[in-house]
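Worked Example 4.2. Read the sequence first, then its structure tokens.
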Amino acid sequence: MQLDQPWVYIVLVGLLIVVYAKIIPRKSEGAAKPDGAIVKEMEQAMDHLAMELEEQNKALIELFSGTKHTYEEHTAKLTSRVETLEKQCQELRHELGRLTFSEEQRRLSLQADASKPGEALGASAGAAVSPAYTEPAAPDKQTEAANKAPMNMKERYGELFGLYESGKSTDYIAKKLGMNKGEISLILQLAKQEERSNA
């Protein structure tokens, strides 16, 4: 029990006043008790008060410890959540870098493949056959296939970009298309990079 708090003294003084007030009328009636009985009553009252104060003190300590425990649990959950989100963010950045690099490599290889067949056909046509007899159909088909192969992001995800350009949020788009928000953000970033590289 903590007796160094001011409210404890106020309660004790109040209790003494109540006990004293009970004693005075009895004395005036002429039925005064011996000093030992008065002291005993005061001791009992003080003991009762001390027990009540101790119980209140215990209840307060339990309340504070419960609040502290709840706060610590909540803080631990939030810390764990922040760590998970940071990890996911790092993974998404890594994935974005990897996809950007692979997209760039694919684009370069497609450009190289598109330029090689034209050169090879021109060289073989000049060496083996006369220029008037070359077949123009084969290079046209190859260039057409090369043009069709690299679909840009806006063509591949037309519905997603339609919703995004109409002002819908990533949450709404994710629910509508059954995708997660990270994937949508990644597609939008890749499309922006693609526009910058094509510009």
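Now turn to a second chain, presented in exactly the same format:
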Amino acid sequence: MKNPKLARVAQGARLELVPLQVVVPVVSTLIALGIGLLIIAATGASVVEAIEAFWDGMAGSDFNIGASINRAISLALVGLGFIFASRANLTNVGGEGQIAMGGMFATAAALHGAGGLPLGLAFIVPLAVGTIAGAVWGGLAGVSRRRAAPTR
């Protein structure tokens, strides 16, 4: 019985089946990394120094780790916006605006409302405010689109 959605991966003496939903992103990421390293090498720069610089920029200090997590959360939330729009048969072309609105509202909440909150809430409240602001900004386009062409 063969399942086309599984890939065979050798693991020790056994042959394990890994879902293609795992294999495809991992292989795609490795290919993209390889292409990026080839481009760096083609420019004459040191590949080892470039990898060290990437690593240092991502995790070289506590600030860099926090900044990396900040960017990852922002991009993940925008990705969720694209998923919701796709599920509703809409096209989300406002990801940048959602990031901007979410960032502005999160900053305002952090500067003017979260200062007196305990440590955990001082992080969560601005994040929630920014998420809601970005969602509302994206939702405005969805509502307008639905009202303009309700039969589509």
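Notes for the reader: The first helix runs from residue 20 to 42. Residues 35 and 119 are 42 Å apart (CA to CA).
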